[in-house]
């Protein structure tokens, strides 16, 4: 069975700093997708970034980028120039290529401090 | 376009009562998911449907939980009888299968409190 582990339950950084959230996963599949979702206090789940496992190039979306290490089964999220609006719970998620069942980690609560 | 619509947003009920949560997925999406979020267990996948057919219900905790999708635009999650440990936020999400790795679109969630 696939599992997703986020080892940092909570983090705090100062505004404008760079922060990295960790995620590891376990699977025997070779083709899959990885995601980071953001859940602000409003409770709405928002897709931040997506990575296809067959792509070696790390995905980037503006201030958000990932470090995908397939051999190590690691998928960290880097937020550059953090902003107060980045305060949220961040979930790492995994989906096999052969279906669309998405499994989530338990989340990292990120606080951006003014 | 309207997003995924869930109702009710909040529900407070007493132990033993039946609870029905409702979801309207995004038009054109053919996969629908029910998740439960708690502090202790995070986001758990309860069940998902593709083309209105349940594909995987291995996350449904016990027989007190049931889910249906009678048509492409409506799904329900029912708990009968409810227990205090069912208190959680229940999310419905939809996506378009055929684009593996496609984005999940979530509703705003239904917060259930069982007293």
Write a concise keyword list for the protein shown above:
heterodimer; A: 114 residues; mainly beta; 6-stranded mixed β-sheet; 4-stranded antiparallel β-sheet; 54% strand; globular; B: 115 residues; 7-stranded mixed β-sheet; 11 strands
Description:
- The complex is a heterodimer of chains A (114) and B (115).
- By secondary structure, chain A is an all-beta fold.
- Chain A is 0% helix and 54% strand.
- Chain B is mainly β.
Secondary structural class of chain B: mainly beta
Give the strand tally of chain B: 11
**Portion of residues within helices of chain A:** under 10%
For the record, give the distance between the C-alpha atoms at the N and C termini of chain A, rounded to a whole number: 41 Å
User: In angstroms, what is the radius of gyration of chain B?
Assistant: 13 Å
> What general outline of chain A do the C-alpha atoms trace?
globular
Report the average pLDDT across residues of chain B: 92
Compile the SSE list and pairings.
The complex is a heterodimer of chains A (about 110) and B (about 120).
Chain A: E1 3-5, E2 10-14, E3 19-21, E4 24-26, E5 32-39, E6 46-52, E7 60-61, E8 64-69, E9 74-79, E10 88-96, E11 102-104, E12 108-113
Parallel strand pairs in A: 2-12
Antiparallel strand pairs in A: 1-4, 3-9, 5-6, 5-10, 7-8, 8-9, 10-11, 10-12
Chain B: E1 5-7, E2 10-13, E3 19-24, E4 31-38, E5 42-50, E6 53-56, E7 65-71, E8 74-79, E9 88-95, E10 105-106, E11 110-114
Parallel strand pairs in B: 2-11
Antiparallel strand pairs in B: 1-3, 3-8, 4-5, 4-9, 5-6, 7-8, 9-10, 9-11
